[in-house]
Amino acid sequence: MTTVLSFPSPLHPSNDINTYLFSRHSMLPYSPDFLWQIESGIVRTLTWFEDGSVVTLGLWGDGDIVGSALSTMNPYDIECLTDVKVKKLPREQWHEATEAMVLHIQRSEEFLKIVHCKQIESALLQLLNWLAKRFGRAVDEGQRIEMRLTHQEIAEIIGATRVTITRTLSNLKKQGVIFVHERFMILSPDQQAFWHYEI
C-alpha cells in the first residue's frame, strides 16, 4: 500500500526513482532544471498579485507537463487539486516531451480565451464545458466533471467574485444546465442552447 505524502516520496524506489505521489492541496516543488509530467490527477498552475489575489494560469491533467521552466511568472506555484502521480523530467530528457509541450501551448491558448471572456455566465459555461471535455466522463445525466472545484477556485480562474460564481451556478442549476451529485458537477446533454460555448 502506497502512503500519500505532501512531500515527494518515490513510489517505487527500486524501479522508478523519478515517479512521485502528492496529496490533494499539496504543492509540487519546482526548479528550472526539471519539469513534471502528470501521470494521473489534476493540478493548477498559479501566481498572485501584490494584494494577494490569485491568478490561475492553467489546469493540467494526465500527460500534461508543468514546471517553472515553462513560465516567466514570479511568483509561481503548482497546486494539486486531486491526489497526483507525476514523473520528474530532468532537462536532458525534455526533447522527449515535444508533443506534450505543443499540447501545453494549445491548452494555454484555450484557457486564455475562457478567462478573457467578459460576460461571467458565458465564461463560466465555457469553463465548465472545457473541464467536462478535459476531465469529464459520461454518466446517465450528462457529462460529469471528475474534479471538485470550490466556488472560490472557480472565481479565481475566471476573474470573478465568489458571490457572483455562487449566484451564477445557482441560476444554471435552476435552468437545468448543470446538476450537482456528491459534490461533482454534471453538465446536462439536453441543454443544447448552452453547448455552443465549446472551444
From TrEMBL:
One of its GO terms (molecular function) is DNA-binding transcription factor activity. SUPFAM superfamilies: cAMP-binding domain-like, Winged helix' DNA-binding domain. This is Crp/Fnr family transcriptional regulator. Signal peptide: none annotated. InterPro entries: cNMP-bd_dom, cNMP-bd_dom_sf, HTH_CRP, RmlC-like_jellyroll, Tscrpt_reg_HTH_Crp-type_CS, WH-like_DNA-bd_sf, WH_DNA-bd_sf. CDD domains: CAP_ED (cd00038), HTH_CRP (cd00092). Gene3D superfamilies: Jelly Rolls, Winged helix-like DNA-binding domain superfamily/Winged helix DNA-binding domain. The keyword Transcription regulation applies. The keyword Transcription regulation applies. The lineage of its organism: Bacteria, Bacillati, Cyanobacteriota, Cyanophyceae, Pseudanabaenales. Residues 118-190 form the HTH crp-type domain. It comes from the Bacteria. Keywords: DNA-binding, Transcription, Transcription regulation.
